[in-house]
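Before surveying the methods themselves, let us examine one representative protein, written as a sequence plus integers encoding its fold.
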Amino acid sequence: MTNIGVFDSGLGGLTVLKELVKDKKANYFYFGDSLRAPYGNLSNSKIIDFSDQIVKFLENYNIDQYIIACNTISTLATDYLKEKYKKPFYPITESGLEDALTFKGDFLVLATQTTVNSHFYKKNIEKNSEAFVHEVAAPNLVSLIEDGVISGKKLEESLEEYLKIANKNHIPNIILGCTHYPIIKNEIERNLAYKANIINPAVNISSKLNFKEDDETSVNIFMSEVNEKNKQIIDKILACDYKLMLKEI
């Protein structure tokens, strides 16, 4: 049996887990740190420390390969985790970059403050293409989503601000640089004044994994905070059976 670890600062990584479960049969162990979300405004050292705590917990389940289902963690902690645990770690940012480079035209990266500060997408897209990359930090979105606010006036007010540059310039490609954002993809599209190409880095992440598939899939979800709001979002995202457990670390 192959054990795949998937982790995120909260609920966002479930959009990655959804794609993995659709494509490959394995035992999946997901950890979402909703209690301490969002990570995007934390110090670099805190993000690395929290990521290390999560992986240390998941190691109890004999994980064979890890998906870092969080752009913020991916940009800061990938090298540290690979060096410490000596196992394969696949950052969601690499999948997003590969996908982005298949498209023509300029880009908007909508992401957390930490991911924007890393300039990962901007540096690598501009180095490997003729595109110009705009960056917008959207600090409110993760908190709203974690609180169950995935539609309505409060969300629209934030999106109006964060999408202002896209609507002004009709930027053809928008990268969802945080795995929480696909949860509100429909709302993002609805608040655009034009039709853009929305890039979800989670879609192709399963291609990173190479293993002999199991006959069945099991999905185990550990959350550092469990309440009715995040249960509803989990059910909205995942179309499969799962076991949900509360685990503070």
User: Anything to note?
Assistant: The mean pLDDT is 95. The beta strands are 3-8, 27-32, 65-68, 89-91, 107-111, 133-137, 173-177, 197-199, 218-223, 243-246.
